[in-house]
Structures are given as C-alpha cells and as structure tokens.
Amino acid sequence: xxxxxxxxxxxxxxxxxxxxxxxxxxxxxxxxxxxxxxxxxxxxxxxxxxxxxxxxxxxxxxxxxxxxxxxxxxxxxxxxxxxxxxxxxxxxxxxxxxxxxxxxxxxxxxxxxxxxxxxxxxxxxxxxxxxxxxxxxxxxxxxxxxxxxxxxxxxxxxxxxxxxxxxxxxxxxxxxxxxxxxxxxxxxxxxxxxxxxxxxxxxxxxxxxxxxxxxxxxxxxxxxxxxxxxxxxxxxxxxxxxxxxxxxxxxxxxxxxxxxxxxxxxxxxxxxxxxxxxxxxxxxxxxxxxxxxxxxxxxxxxxxxxxxxxxxxxxxxxxxxxxxxxxxxxxxxxxxxxxxxxxxxxxxxxxxxxxxxxxxxxxxxxxxxxxxxxxxxxxxxxxxxxxxxxxxxxxxxxxxxxxxxxxxxxxxxxxxxxxxxxxxxxxxxxxxxxxxxxxxxxxxxxxxxxxxxxxxxxxxxxxxxxxxxxxxxxxxxxxxxxxxxxxxxxxxxxxxxxxxxxxxxxxxxxxxxxxxxxxxxx
Length: 522
Hints:
The chain is α+β, with helices and mostly antiparallel strands. 22% of the residues lie in helices and 41% in strands. The longest helix has 24 residues, at 2-25.
C-alpha cells in the first residue's frame, strides 16, 4: 500500500515536470480552463490557416491579411477577393495555438490565390443618354479636346473640369474657357494683377467708348461651348468595361438620326421644309399623323416632327466676320380691314441694296443658327416690297349634306358615263333622291335652274370672291338674286343631267377655277 502511494506520487510529479518543460519549450501550448469552446480551428475558403484560442479579433486579422494581399499583388486599384471564413470550436484542457502573424500570412496567401477581378479607378463621361468609360483623367481631357478641335483650329480654347455645385455628390462638369480667361483667373492670385484690373476698370468708366471701325474687328472665332451638359464622375470599373479615346470620340461625335420638333413659320411649304432639312417627303408624311400627303395644307405655328442627323455631343461656336453683301429690306405691309386675309396686292416691287457688315455668326454642328450685326455701312439702300393685305378672317365652308358616301373625288378620273368629264371639277356624294342640300357658306344665288351637264343646279357667290356649285338636283328651293345664310336649305338632291345615279355634285371655284373642296371644308 505504501509503495503504491509512492508510485502514484512519483507519477504526478513526473507529469508536472513534463508540463512545465513543455510550457518552457513550447510557448504556443496553452493550459485552458473548463469554459466551453476554447480552441478554434480557422478555415479561409476551405483552407485551414491556423488554430486560435478566440475568434474575438478574427475580422481584424482578415482585414490585415487583405492589405498584405493587395500590397503583394502591387496595385492601387480596387481588388475583389473571395473571403469565406469558417471556424470550428472545441473545448480542450491544453493545446498548441498559432501565432496571429502566422495566421495573417496564411490568410494573405489564400486571398492572393482567391483573387477574382480588379476594378480600375476610372472616369465615366455622360452626355445625354450616352456614357463612355475612360481609364484616366488625361483621357477624359483628350476626349473633350478632340470634340472641339475641328472648330478651334488656332488652339485658342481649352477644356476644364469644374465641380458641379448643384449636385450633392462629387460630379465634375466640362466647360470651355479661352486661354486668356484661364490666364486672367490665374493672375487673380497676384496682388499686382488685381490692382491693374482695378485701374483698367476705373479708366474704362472715365473714358467714353469710341465707335469701332471695320479694321478694329478681329475676324475669327469668338466663342465655343458644348451644346449639351457633360458630367464626369469617378468610378471603379472592370478593365473590359473601359473605352479607348478613339471609341469614345466616335460614340459622342458620330452623327445619328434624331427627332426634333419644327414649328411652321410664315412662307413655309412642305416641299421647302423637306428640301431644307434633307428629309424625303414620304418620310416627312409618315412621321406626322396630321399630314395625309404632300398636298396637305399646313398653318403657321403648327408643329411637325422631323428627323435630322445630329451627334450626341453638339458644339456651338461663334465667329466674327466682316463682309460685303446684297441685302433685302423687310417687307412692308399695309392693312386693309375691308379685305379678307386671302386677298393681297403688291404696291411696290423690291430692289436689293448693298452694304458692308461686321457681324457675329453662331453655328451649331456647322449649321448657322443666329446672326448679330455689330456694324454696317450701306452703299446702296434697299427698296422694300410694299404689300396691301386684308385683315378679315375669311368665312368657313361646311359640307352641304348630312352623311352620304363619297362616290367620286376631285381631279383626274375615268369617265363614269358617256360624255362625262375625265377631269372632275368637284366631289360627289351618293345620297338618296330628296336629301336636303344646304348652302356651304352665306352668299348670293347667281344661278338657280337647269345647267348643261349639271342638270338642275344652284350657283352661289360668296363675300370672299369664291363660288360654290350644287348639281344634279331634283328640286331647286331658291331663286336667282336671293341672299342665303350658311346652312340654309337651298335644294333637294337628285339624279338629273349627266349622272350615273342619285348623288350631289359639289364644287368650290376661286377666280373661276375649280379647286378641291375637301381642302376648304370646315
């Protein structure tokens, strides 16, 4: 019994000595208390990277490992790495743990092998709905400079990116400044320059401004700007998302078909609008529901949809020019309240004048958009055209029957019966015999009775100089010389004269010539 106790004591002493020696020789081996899970195996992306006594600082270790991995890769760009951490906890009395620095190194090694993609620091340039991505600030400047280069041939202007104060986020806006403006803004930091500017202002107020001579005008570019707002924002993008400068210039400056709204002005015709805007007539009609064909009448201020070739980024520039030209004086109109607006008489024919001009002309994408005359010297005065014209709104015309089916239109046709005209002077509506026929407009009856080819007919002269005719009637209800009002019943339809069936023939004549009634009916 005594021997057994001594052996047990010796065993315990030996175990204590072994533990002490291990603690001295292996500092990473720790003695744990019974507190539940106290030993954690850490895996990153499925790879074991070490054993730790706690997970308290695990996120900090991973962040440090990320930094080391990015430094080892050697880039300033934004790097995406897979990082899936898994820990397995157990309770142990004593166990060997890893040094945190060793764990960080192993994590960094795993992250480097798990790198998916790198996002490059880039710049997105947005013009309207078009956006291009460039890899550097200098490439942005090159794109914007190339856009104005065809117009700034003397390199008088330069592009600057300024912070857009209207935006909450950091957005840069492209502006164009003359090199003189740039130099002046730089000199504002100089006190002497500020004093000089103040003296210049004072002298300008004292000295009266003298009128310029033509020799004082410097012909050439006086201003240039982007027609659209250009926004530039910093972004991190994949390399395959970046555009080259050449691609970007092509995207923003290449002409493409764009729709615009055109407002009709006095003197416009559909054919002239088609020619001026280089758009085929059939395309112009197809774009606008209000146009039936090329003969459709248009009115002042009517809005038409046009397609014109325009780049995404348009350039506006102004040139100062001195030139000699023939010019026309503005037409002078004399109102006549007794005439309708359809009546006018030229009282004086125009004659062109001759003058020397200094002007600033504004262009957009090569097309002139405005002209401001700064100085002119007239060699020969232009003689204006003088026109007397009516101010009264002409009366309207209404359809002379209710309902009816159009059976024959205006103009060329095959003769419906022997002896009938192949050039139809009016329009026919098929209606039952006895249908009421009313005056299309107020006027005076100048014929009421039989007329060759028309059968029974009524002719009415109107105040605007036009005449309406109603043919193939079964009964006439008015007399020659009678005054009728618009909508007043004048006859009953029939099938008399040279006719192929019951219908009403209706004409409108201007100065004795028949016109298409459908263009004048309200």
